[in-house]
């Protein structure tokens, strides 16, 4: 009977061994499942699944569209999804496609030292800025350096994407070239050539007009109904050139205006000549003129003006008519050796309002005193056959 007993004993040992192995497999499987669904309890052996214990991540960001020369700020998130404390050593912006850096941290750099502990199953956010300086796409990698108890460095990364947007607008005369008779009225409308987006936020515009004041007299300026002058136009004159700067504000975002304004001049050269009315220093602004919208690229064109002298020699009015300030709100119109037949004499303010006029026959020696309501200056105009031939500016 002894041999039989030994055989049975051996069998039991082998069976016990199988049971032990099976139990070990069950324990390993249970430990694996526990690690995948959270941190293990204190009495669980976890070394088998160390890859699931240390699990840092970080987000990137798609900034989509941002205006050039403006900054957009967001926050990227860093997460410790494992069960071990980790140290965030630093965050870097790397591999940017733009030759000029456009992604920055709040310190203005592309490296942010952190040296901060992030506990298990917790998150931290860090601000990051996209400040495009050119139009088009830009990408970069945001990389986080982690430290695991001073033993192992770990790197995580994600993508940054941004698009720099820029608009363009031009202020130009409706026509590039104008021809006007001496002492006649010249109208030059100024138009915007493109359509801005309401999202551009252009609530005002500033620009300057320059013209030769010895050849052209600016009578009036008429704005688009949506525009008002934020302040009085600023005018200066140097070497016969007068420059007036206009600062116009809109009640709604400026998109497309045609015309922005209309300039009305009187040509008073006295002979055939040409000159230029130029537009310069155009820019758009937001809440106030100091809030310059640098993402709207601007340009302008000039108006070429040709002044023709169509008055014949025997109708050289400038040689035969003069206007004299008589004082006491009176202007004397005098002529000699002149036979115009029926003519109309007008006195016009510099903003284009007629303040006095006379119609009748002008022959031989002529003298007429016209009264004006206030001090000037004024423009004197003589009409013959419905055409105005003679202008003279007179101070009063």
Summarize the structure in short.
This protein is mostly beta strands.
Main traits of this protein?
4 domains; seven-stranded mixed sheet; Immunoglobulin-like; 396 residues; mainly beta; rod-shaped
Structural overview:
Strands 11, 13, 15, 16, 17, 19 and 21 form a 7-stranded mixed β-sheet that branches. A 5-stranded mixed β-sheet has the order 2-9-8-4-6, with no helix packed on it. The protein is rod-shaped. The chain is 10% helix and 56% strand. With 396 residues, it is mainly β. Strand 25 and strand 26 form a beta hairpin.
Distance between the termini: 148 Å
Taking pLDDT < 50 over at least 5 consecutive residues as the criterion, the unreliable ranges are 1-37, 40-52, 311-315
Q: How many whole angstroms does the radius of gyration measure?
A: 42 Å
**Structural class by SSE content:** mainly beta
The CATH architecture of the largest domain can be given as Sandwich
Order of helices and strands: HEEEEEEEEEEEEEEEEEEEEEHEEEEE
Number of strands: 26
SS strand fraction: over 45%
State the share of residues found in helices, binned by percent: under 10%
Average pLDDT number: 81
Give the overall shape, derived from the CA principal axes. rod-shaped
User: What's the number of structural domains?
Assistant: 4
The largest sheet, given as strand count, sense and whether it forms a barrel, is:
7 strands, mixed
Q: Give the CATH topology of the largest domain.
A: Immunoglobulin-like
CATH class of the largest domain: Mainly Beta
Q: Tally the helices: what do you get?
A: 2
